[in-house]
Design brief:
single chain; 283 residues; alpha+beta; four-stranded antiparallel β-sheet; rod-shaped
């Protein structure tokens, strides 16, 4: 009985070994399956590519490194910085010199050329104020009286136009002979002659140089004072002149009057009684 049991166990054991051999027989191709393990191995290498990702993060760091050199450059070359400051100072000095020369040129050039229309309006306002003047305005009596006398007179058909033409021609020639800088600031506004008075209106928009021009003989009053030297002065019967000088709106206004002396022919002499008595006494 025991022998049978042992034989049975041995038979079963043999069968088990045979079965195991049979089951494990197809395992030789298992090494070929190992490449499947080789593929999922580090060949996929996602972790190996992971360190490459930080490289994309380096560009934002680079601007920081690039911004630092500009901050350090000014400190590196102090001598050039001093040189540039000197150059800037020289440039500023040249600019200020140019500005000063421009301002000097502006001062030398003075005001713009005179505006005749504006000067005419200023003189018209001055004459209107004198015509409406009262005793409380404290104007010289001679000025007011001469103006009123001129307003009351009428033109002399045989004399006024001829006198006016001579005055205008002489004063225009006087202005034309002035230097260009003085000529641009003077204007003969109007000349009008009546029975015994001629009114001459003029204006100057550069009163700042009046003294200098007066010393050079270029001041307007000297033009009026030169009229008596003209040959027509006495031929037309002029005997005197007067000039009123006023200022308005940075202009110097001149109102001159030329006085004519009108000679009246004397009445014929009547026979004297003394002559008749003398003749009788002599007889």
């Amino acid at each position: 009985m025991r022998r049978t049991l042992i034989l049975t166990i041995a038979a079963l054991t043999g069968l088990l070994l045979v079965w195991l051999i049979v089951v494990r027989a197809p395992e030789p191709p298992a090494p070929a399956a190992k490449p499947v393990v080789h593929a999922p191995a580090p060949a996929v290498a996602p972790p190996a590519e992971a360190p490459i990702a930080p490289k994309s993060e380096e560009p934002p760091v680079k601007p920081v490194a690039e911004t630092k050199p500009p901050e350090q450059k000014p400190a590196v070359p102090p001598p050039p910085a001093s040189d540039t400051t000197h150059e800037d100072a020289d440039a500023q000095a040249e600019d200020t010199a140019d500005d000063s020369t421009d301002s000097e040129n502006d001062e030398d050039s003075g005001p713009p050329e005179i505006d005749t229309d504006h000067a005419t309006d200023l003189i018209a306002d001055l004459i209107a104020s004198e015509e409406n003047a009262t005793e409380t305005d404290h104007l010289p009596n001679a000025v007011v009286q001469t103006l009123k006398k001129f307003d009351q007179e009428s033109a002399d058909a045989n004399w006024s136009e001829n006198a006016q033409q001579h005055i205008e021609a002489t004063l225009d020639a006087w202005i034309a002979a002035l230097p260009a800088d003085a000529q641009a600031h003077l204007a003969l506004i109007h000349v009008e002659c009546r029975a015994t008075l001629c009114q001459v209106l003029a204006a100057d928009n550069d009163p700042g140089s009046a003294d200098e021009r007066s010393q050079a003989g270029h001041e307007w009053q000297q033009a009026i004072l030169s009229l008596p030297q003209q040959p027509w002065w006495h031929e037309l019967g002029f005997v005197d002149s007067s000039t009123q000088v006023s200022g308005a709106d940075e202009h110097t206004l001149y109102i001159s009057y030329l006085l004519r002396e009108v000679k009246t022919s004397p009445a014929p002499d009547a026979p004297s009684d003394t002559g008749e008595t003398g003749s009788t006494d002599g007889g």
